[in-house]
# Entry
Amino acid sequence: MPDIPNRATDEADLASKIARMLQRQLGTVMEELGDPPNLDKLTPEFWQQIESETAEVIRPQIEGVFLEGAQTLLDDQPVGVDWGLVNERAVDWTSQYTFELVQGITNTTRDLIDKKVAQFFEEPSSTIRSLTKELQQAFGPVRAEMIAVTEVTRAAAEGQRQLADEIQKETGIVMIEIWQTADDDACPKCRPRHGHPKGDVWQDYPPLHVRCRCWVNLEHPAATNA
# Structure
């Protein structure tokens, strides 16, 4: 069975939303820092607002991909589950994971800002314009695309994992989870897992690395033993 059918659209949509958000945040950060930049102005309340905005952008996107991953596999299975329960799982996981993801994104951003501001005062020729340019890597489209690809994979795989869990809970059927790579050019880390069931050569679900596009298929044990 193929990967989630709308992966390219999901990635592009999330990357676009994150990129626009990051550009807004860069403007807010530079305005708040002032000239010369003062890190004390980036208060805990300021970062809480940044985290809240980031969560609002990311949460609905990855919740939708979670459900897409689950639905894609469910459509291919001769079993039924209560879709309302799958939706509950999507909400619960998305809320918890978004909190962790946003904290990670924010911490990375803060670390880079701290580093670049320190370098600003070490270089006599530094200007606010040059500092803004230096910070583009933390707020630019490359980072947005990296986050989008990785998190679309994670959300889809989580939907697939939790669908398998729900099937087992409701029916007692233990579905066989098979790792799938995006293509024959998969990286050396992912390629050895292709076609292997969970517990054979892998335990942790995709993404295995940044920009990983692997996914998990489900096979009914009756079909495997036929």
Remarks:
- DSSP finds six helices and two strands in the chain.
- The beta strands are 176-180, 215-219.
- The first helix runs from residue 7 to 33.
